[in-house]
Design brief:
The complex is a heterotrimer of chains A (about 290), B (about 150) and C (about 750). Chain A has about 290 residues and is an alpha+beta fold. Chain A contains eleven helices and 14 strands. A five-stranded antiparallel beta sheet of chain A has the order 4-5-10-6-7. In chain A, strands 11-12-13-14 form a four-stranded antiparallel beta sheet. In chain A, strands 1-3-2 form a three-stranded parallel beta sheet, with no helix packed on it. Chain B folds into two domains: about 55 residues, Ubiquitin-like (UB roll) (Roll), CATH 3.10.20.30; about 70 residues, DNA polymerase, domain 1 (Orthogonal Bundle), CATH 1.10.150. Chain B is about 40% helix and about 5% strand. Chain B is built from seven helices and three strands, in the order H-E-E-H-E-H-H-H-H-H. The two termini of chain B are about 20 Å apart. Chain C folds into three domains: about 130 residues, Aldehyde Oxidoreductase, domain 4 (2-Layer Sandwich); about 190 residues, Aldehyde oxidase/xanthine dehydrogenase, molybdopterin binding domain (Aldehyde Oxidoreductase, domain 4, 2-Layer Sandwich), CATH 3.30.365.10; about 325 residues, Aldehyde Oxidoreductase, domain 4 (2-Layer Sandwich). Classes of the chains: A alpha+beta (about 290), B mainly alpha (about 150), C alpha+beta (about 750). Chains in contact: A-B, A-C, B-C.
């Protein structure tokens, strides 16, 4: 433990409005901390430069899931376990409950939050590609009020988002129109549990008469931000899935991403595996399509 | 509350729950194996939910019910869980054992008759370097069979 | 006499209750009044001279106890085999993380900042980071050359075999460093006062190693140094020699401050600064006859010892002796050397050289099989040692071990033949390739050659006031079951119940030196002495006519109580004697290297994921002959645990080095298997007995580390038809090999990095 607790102050005002008032009074001075599964690791290693923190853990306004006819609003303070246990999330947003089960072990799933995953903005974050393919929108809140932004484009660079210093994410909105899609998520890591993704894919697809009517592909750990593979989607949309298309998709995906060599893996491995993941999804989609 | 007792401590707001339990309360059952929430040897229950106490600032635990391994021993039913670990060789060096037992307790509360897959998944956040896990799985299955946690 | 056997039964773990209730006390659970916390200022460069040490003004240094090399009362070294390793660097550093200064303060939180506030200026010198660089000798970083130790093992006439050979098969095999990753980090508490002397409490395997090192460091006589083992949360060899270093540090701070001092490493420090398994490189050149028999060969075995000698000669010895495996070599030349590099010294880790040389050998056997067009099964069968034949060191195999039958049983248990054929068919059209691989091996238990005689272990059993008996050994418990099994042995030897026997804490003030808890010697060697010492108690009681020839446990206890009440507590001590016929020539490195060998055949079934190139072990059979199983649950636990660590060694655990420093020193990025990663590991035993071991037992603690890695890599080759000769074998390595091998596959365009 390489940090001195006396050097830090953590306040817990207890309500969303109190937290927002603090952020408005001193924007940038108080770092919000939810479940702590990222920030406390930095803290223990002596790498947390922020000295003043404000707890947003377990605030009722942030930790509920509201179900509307056309969309659901997942509170940013919902934990991965909350996601895994919610009926509608499991039924209509399977990718999200799947990726929630990838993150850490049970103890970390009980504390890590969806909002924390977004704001921490690691390119390897497990849940972010799923939010991308589900066309998520974020409700951002401050004392200035609320506004809604598309999730795509929220990440502007490596570990940088559009979040203003006085803002919090209040909820993640997901449109309820993907139940009929074939959904697939896969993470490639060093081991089966508690692994940071070397590459991960979240994918949705729908076939009509054997032709790809719609397809969404997003990946983690292949760029400084979670990446929507728009080129690859464009390449295959409207086409019939056959071996040449799968090869083309594989190559397009490998070219579209920008993986690096790092401690965990190599760029060439990531590129190849990314291509494989896309190919694997297309094979699955074709097989699923022929069943109906 | 810790193990059923009201507790008041004076510590810094960013003191880790793990350190508070070990140093202020003398509850040394929870261990620090990694300080990064990977090994699970610091696991405790917070309002019945399994958490890594090395990652919790004490102020976030305020007003909650904490149960540590020391708190399990007084519960009659859990003697069966601990006995299962002894019968099956689930503890070797013992350092991961308190966290592991709490993780099993948490699992059996949710899934009284878990499948092997569910056991593997439920314990995937608790690293054991000695056993290779199999005799821990045996202990879980024996505990489940004997209705160790309801 | 009671009817049940205790030896052979799965009696409950002696100290188990404390472990499952959280009451067991590890060193960090203990505090002493007025205690200070200690921390270490370490080198940031791999090699060079210390030019200046500055203490930055933001810290109030008056509050600190500061210790440097000049504070060392005795000799500035951690005494082990040689005395080349300083306790604190004095002017010169030879590896990253080398300890330079020690700091102590009452507030443990302040220490981390203080460590950062010490500025050290160095004059860097060229440093060596690989065995190959060391061999080039462009920069001599240790001694007169770069070599800590060499061995030469020769048998027969190897120079004459090449012309007779139908095949000559060559191969080079490498293994990487491996971190022991005990879940409890290293820690020590030391206290000193001028009356009682020095006491240390800590996480450790060998109290008397620490004792010897502290005597030398502090210039204290034996009776004024006391070492006490606390409950130890895993060790695996990682706490064989390193505890002497951290104990020395705590001791120096305690002596200078006059207060107790506790030093506990966090995971980052423990990984970066303490010992790891020696990286190795083995080169085989083997002459094979037309019908697949080994005629002879040359084996070149090199290990990387890091910056100081520590235990490298012994690791080298064991690795060299095991390099020929369970096969008959009519002629062989084994050249072994341990070389210096500027990394923190490498050290003991379960297997201790044998996993390295046996990985090479068992991979090489599959290579030979392929070259001579025989199956992996047949090549082994034709070359197995038979009773009456001699090993590479000329030791005659005298026990009736039938390795061919052991192999057969392993093949049957794993359904090898059926699966191999099935996988071969499946692999032709399937994407997910599957394979099955074998490893056959042995592990010598106890210290090599005359090592046990040199150790001259002493064991005691004490008759206690309440009629129970207490075992007195310096052998330590760290999960493997020492306390339990030694008590079973004493109980059995005396005809008592398990609950009539206890065991003393490993405290040098209380127990004799029964040798270090290493080399799989505890049950076999120390256990046998426990048996004898226990019988000594019985003899004393019989001689005083307090005990009949045949008695019940209660009658024994009564006799014991009566005797002790009359004459006081008494102890029976026994000293090790080398068995006749165990003759070893240290000069020529020939003869009976070990008093007993355990034998094994392991079979691994794997599949390789076509998308991710991850290898998953789907089934694992571990069959071994171990003399006698004294506690089935504990024995099974040892094998499974060892196999799990070896799976890590083979497929997951990579140490990433940058200029001699481990870069991935956190549990997030040093990858050990979780509960979701391991296959069902099926364990089977055979028992041939052992004249030199307690109740016929052989040592088994390290055996399971030797076989899994080659069995797994052999299985991967079976699956992919591509050889791999280096571990850890990561998906990235498999991908690179497959791409390299596929002539026509077009590669994705290379991507530029962002960092």
């Amino acid at each position: 433990m390489r940090a001195h607790p006396a050097d830090y102050e953590l306040v817990a005002p207890g309500t969303l409005s109190a937290v927002l008032s603090l952020l408005a009074r001193e924007p940038g001075a108080w770092l919000p901390i939810a479940g702590g599964t990222d920030l406390m690791v930095q803290y223990s290693a002596g790498n947390l430069s922020a000295r003043n923190l404000v707890s947003i853990w377990n605030l009722p306004d942030l930790r509920r899931i509201e179900v509307f006819p056309g969309e659901i609003h997942i509170g940013a303070g919902c934990t991965y376990t909350d996601l895994r246990e919610h009926e509608i999330v499991n039924r209509e947003f399977k990718l999200l409950s799947t990726v929630a089960s990838w993150t850490g072990g049970i103890a970390n799933q009980n504390r890590g939050t969806l909002g924390g995953n977004i704001v921490n903005a690691s390119p390897a974050a497990d849940s972010l590609p799923a939010l991308m393919v589900y066309e998520a929108e974020l409700i951002l809140v401050s004392t200035r009020g609320e506004h809604r932004v598309p999730y795509g484009g929220f990440h502007v660079g490596y570990r940088k988002t559009r979040l203003q210093p006085d803002e919090l994410i209040r909820a993640v909105c997901l449109p309820r129109r993907f139940s009929s899609y074939h959904a697939h998520a896969r993470k490639v890591g060093a081991r089966n549990a508690q692994a940071i993704a070397k590459v991960c894919l979240a994918a949705l697809g729908r076939l009509a008469d054997g032709v790809i009517e719609d397809i969404r592909l997003a990946m983690g750990s292949v760029a400084p931000v979670p990446l929507r593979l728009k080129d690859t989607e464009r390449t295959v949309r409207g086409k019939r899935i056959d071996p040449p298309l799968v090869e083309l998709a594989r190559k397009t995906a490998a070219a579209e991403i920008r993986p690096i060599d790092d401690m965990r893996s190599t760029a060439r491995y990531r590129a190849a595996v990314a291509g494989n993941l896309v190919a694997e999804f297309l094979e699955q989609l074709r097989a699923a399509g022929t069943k109906t | 509350m810790v193990n059923g007792q009201q507790v008041t401590v004076r510590v810094h707001t960013m003191e880790r729950l793990l350190d508070m339990l070990r140093h202020e309360l003398g509850l040394t059952g929870a261990k620090e194996g990694c300080g990064e929430g990977e090994c699970g040897s610091c696991s405790v229950l917070m309002d019945g939910v399994l958490v890594n106490s090395c990652l919790i600032p004490v102020i976030q635990a305020k007003g909650t019910d904490i149960v540590t391994i020391e708190g399990l021993s007084s519960d009659k039913q859990l003697a069966k869980l601990q006995q299962a670990f002894l019968d099956c060789g689930g503890a070797q060096c013992g350092i991961c054992t308190p966290g592991m037992i709490l993780a099993v307790h948490h699992l059996l509360r949710k899934r009284p008759q878990p499948t092997l897959e569910e056991i593997r998944e439920g314990l995937s956040g608790n690293l054991c370097r000695c056993t290779g896990y199999m005799q821990i799985f045996d202990a879980v299955m024996q505990a489940a069979e004997r209705g160790a946690v309801t | 006499m009671k009817s049940e056997n205790i030896v052979g039964a799965s009696v409950p773990r002696m100290e188990g209750r404390g472990k499952v209730t959280g009451q067991a006390k590890y060193v960090d659970d203990m505090a002493l009044p007025d205690m200070l916390h200690g921390a270490t200022v370490r080198s940031r460069i791999p090699r060079g001279k210390i030019k200046k040490i500055a203490f930055r003004p933001e810290i109030n240094w008056q509050e600190f106890v500061i210790v440097s090399a000049k504070d060392i009362p005795g000799k500035n070294c951690i005494a082990l085999i040689e005395e080349d390793q300083p306790c604190l660097a004095d002017g010169m550093v030879n590896h990253p993380e080398e300890p330079i200064l020690l700091l102590a303060h009452a507030d443990r939180h302040i220490l981390a900042k203080a460590v950062e506030a010490v500025s050290i200026e160095y004059e860097s010198l060229p440093a060596i980071f690989t065995m190959e660089e060391s061999e080039k000798q462009s920069e001599i970083i240790w001694g007169r050359d770069y070599i800590f130790k060499t061995y030469l093992i020769e048998k027969g006439n190897v120079d004459a075999v090449w012309e007779k050979a139908e095949y000559i098969v060559e191969g080079e095999y490498t293994t990487g460093a491996q971190e022991q990753l005990y879940i409890e980090n290293n820690g020590m508490i030391a206290a000193f006062d001028s009356e009682r002397g020095l006491t240390v409490w800590g996480s450790l395997q060998c109290p008397y190693y620490v004792h010897k090192a502290l005597m030398k460091l502090c210039g204290l006589p034996a009776e004024r140094v006391r070492v006490v083992q606390m409950e130890t949360g895993g060790a695996f060899g990682g706490k064989e020699e390193y505890p002497s270093m951290i104990a020395a540090h705590a001791a120096l701070l305690a002596i200078k401050s006059g207060k107790p001092v506790k030093i506990i490493y966090d995971r980052m420090e423990d990984m970066a600064a303490t010992t790891k398994r020696h990286p190795s490189r083995t080169r085989h050149r083997t002459a094979v006859s037309g019908d697949g028999k080994i005629l002879g060969g040359e084996i070149d075995f090199t290990i990387d010892g890091g910056a100081y000698e520590t235990l490298s000669p012994v690791v080298l010895s064991r690795g060299a002796i095991h390099a020929g495996g369970p096969y008959y070599w009519p002629s062989v030349r084994i050249r072994a050397k341990a070389v210096a590099t500027n990394a923190p010294p490498h050290g003991a880790f379960r297997g201790f050289g044998a996993p390295q040389s046996l990985f090479a050998l068992e991979r090489h056997m599959d290579r030979i099989a392929q070259a001579v067009h025989l199956s992996p099964v047949e090549i082994r069968r034709r070359n197995f040692l038979q009773t009456g034949q001699t090993t590479t060191t000329g030791q005659t195999v005298s026990e009736p071990i039938d390795l061919g039958k052991l192999l057969d049983r392993a093949l049957e248990l794993s359904d090898y033949a059926v699966k191999r054929e099935k996988f071969a068919k499946q692999n032709r059209h399937g994407d997910k390739k599957k394979g099955i691989g074998i490893a056959a091996f042995l592990h010598g238990a106890g210290f090599t050659g005359s090592g046990e005689r040199y150790l001259s272990s002493v064991v005691g059993v004490e008759a206690c006031r309440d009629g129970s008996v207490r075992v007195l050994v310096s052998s330590t418990e760290f999960g493997q079951g020492t306390k339990t099994v030694l008590c079973q042995i004493a109980a059995e030897a005396l005809g008592l119940r398990y609950e009539d026997v206890g065991i003393a804490q490993a405290d040098t003030q209380e127990v004799p030196n029964s040798g270090p808890t290493v080399a799989s010697r505890t049950v076999m060697v120390v256990g046998k002495l426990v048996e004898s010492a226990a019988r000594g108690i019985r003899q004393t009681l019989s001689a005083s006519s307090m005990l009949a020839d045949s008695y019940s446990p209660e009658e024994f206890r009564t006799a014991c109580r009566t005797y002790v009440a009359k004459h006081g507590e008494f102890r029976s001590f026994v000293r090790y004697e080398q068995p006749e016929g165990v003759i070893w020539d240290e000069e020529k490195y020939r003869g009976a290297a070990y008093a007993a060998y355990a034998w094994a055949v392991y079979v691994a079934e794997v599949s390789v994921d076509p998308t991710s190139y991850n290898v998953s072990v789907d089934d694992f059979v571990a069959l071994q002959e171990v003399g006698k199983v004294l506690n089935p649950v504990l024995a099974r636990g040892q094998i499974i645990g060892g196999v799990a660590q070896a799976i890590g060694f083979a497929l997951y655990e990579k140490v990433i080095w940058e200029k001699g420093r481990m870069q991935n020193g956190q549990m997030t990025n040093y990858i050990m298997p979780t509960s979701a990663d391991l296959p069902p590991i099926r364990v089977y035993f055979e028992e041939l007995g052992n004249a030199h071991g307690a109740f016929g037992a052989k040592g088994i603690g390290e055996l399971p580390m030797d076989g899994p890695a080659p069995a797994i890599v052999n299985a991967v080759q079976d699956a992919l038809a591509v050889p791999f000769d280096s571990i850890p074998l990561l998906p990235e390595d498999i991908f690179d090999a497959l791409i390299g091998n596929a002539a026509q596959q077009s590669q994705p365009p290379s991507a530029r990095g962002h960092r």
